[in-house]
Design brief:
The complex is a heterodimer of chains A (182) and B (213). Chain A has 182 residues and is mainly alpha-helical. Chain A contains nine helices and no strands. The chains are: A mainly alpha (182), B mainly alpha (213).
């Protein structure tokens, strides 16, 4: 396993880890920071920290251990917290709004479908405009393919909070599409 | 018919519902056009999120990272007896916690010994005697005022006038009492320091940076 070899000081193994994960780390940083230069800077810092701390990493099969990606993204998100001071607080606080049931559509609402390309463009714009906490969770879920549990472990949040954030993020985007449909 | 909740629909979409709940949601969807529309919209959102463009990393990023890595060896942690200072620097929070706990134990033992000079004064009995002494003192002051300071044995502040050098029980009680108070304060302070140490440890663990330069 690459992480184990890196722990023994094998730089080639660590280089392989960097090559494997750099795109995801960079994109996670870019989506939150919205600046290519800062995202690159954060990526470098994250890997350097990971290398310095690699001996402290405990694999998923050890007590209190985690997957390498969970551990690495924990470092990345901690660096993001330093650059985006309100992010951690946003993540911890759950919004007061309740998860509602599906609402019945307004009577006789015309359901003319907006052209598919335009709808996609609207959603993409809305994704870019999501609050940082939703961007972070959505990116971990879709780009990094982390499960709810892994996201909770990465961010040190309760599982329920992670689910709520994910549902709310998608709910917002869905409402936007529904508006476009009416 | 009551519609599905957003979280049920989304969990269904993610395939994370337990089989039984999944079947119930499917049955509802078969019968409910509104919820089917809702699910279709959520699918669209899901696809859009999957299609969020992934940028290529900047050219040469890995090489730049590795150049920095090569200049930094991961922290070697030699045994503490070989290099005590770096070890202390890396483990100061544990050391602080250990020291705080040890100090608390020492303070409690010392104060317990100070209080336990005789069995009668140890523990709760001490407080009982303290309360009794305080009441007696009030009573003495009352009598001293009433009977005038010149009358036998008591002055105006209620301290018994005894030959110098003879140990008075109230004086010894007071010494023990202040010793106990000092012990409690020291205990609280050291426990507070210990708690701060634990907090730092937890923070380091969360950041995955337990071993740092």
């Amino acid at each position: 396993m690459l992480a184990l070899r890196a722990q023994r000081g094998d730089q080639d193994a660590f280089a392989a880890l960097v090559t494997r994960h750099q795109r995801y780390v960079y994109n996670l940083a870019y989506r939150l920071l919205r600046d290519a230069h800062e995202a690159e800077d954060l990526t470098q810092e994250a890997f350097l920290r990971a290398w310095r701390a690699i001996r402290g990493y405990r694999g998923a099969n050890e007590a209190g251990g985690a997957k390498f990606t969970t551990w690495l993204y924990r470092i990345v998100t901690n660096l993001c917290y330093n650059r985006l001071p309100g992010l951690r607080r946003q993540l911890v606080q759950e919004d007061a709004e309740r998860l509602e049931r599906v609402a019945a559509p307004a009577e006789n609402a015309p359901r003319a479908l907006v052209e598919a390309g335009e709808r996609r463009a609207r959603v993409q714009a809305a994704i870019e405009a999501l609050p940082d906490k939703y961007k972070l969770i959505v990116t971990l879920y879709y780009l990094q393919d982390q499960s709810y549990q892994e996201i909770a472990a990465t961010l040190g949040l309760p599982l329920g909070t992670v689910k709520t954030h994910l549902y709310r993020a998608r709910g917002r985007l869905k409402d936007l599409l529904a508006e476009g449909q009416d | 018919m009551e519609h599905l909740r957003q979280d049920e629909l989304q969990a269904y979409l993610d395939g994370t519902l337990p089989p039984e709940e999944g079947r119930a949601v499917r049955a509802h969807l078969d019968a409910c056009a509104e919820c089917r529309t809702e699910l279709a919209l959520l699918r669209e959102v899901d696809e859009a999120l999957r299609a969020w463009p992934v940028l290529p990393e900047p050219e040469g990023l890995a090489a730049r990272v590795m150049a920095e890595v090569q200049a930094t060896s991961p922290v070697q942690t030699p045994p503490p007896w070989e290099a005590p200072w770096p070890w202390l620097r890396a483990h100061w929070s544990e050391v602080l916690l250990g020291a705080a706990l040890a100090a608390t134990v020492v303070v409690l033992v010392v104060s317990a010994r100070a209080l336990g000079g005789t069995r009668d004064y140890a523990g709760l009995r001490f407080w009982e005697l303290e309360a009794e002494r305080a009441l007696a003192q009030v009573e003495r002051v009352w009598y001293a005022i009433r009977a005038d300071a010149r009358s036998d044995g008591w002055d105006a502040v209620g301290v018994p006038s005894r030959p110098v050098g003879e140990s008075s029980r109230p004086a010894r009680y007071a010494a023990q009492f202040y010793c106990w108070v000092a012990g409690v304060i020291a205990g609280v302070v050291t426990l507070g320091a210990g708690a701060a140490g634990v907090r730092v440890l937890a923070q380091q663990w969360r950041q995955g940076l337990h071993v740092t330069t």
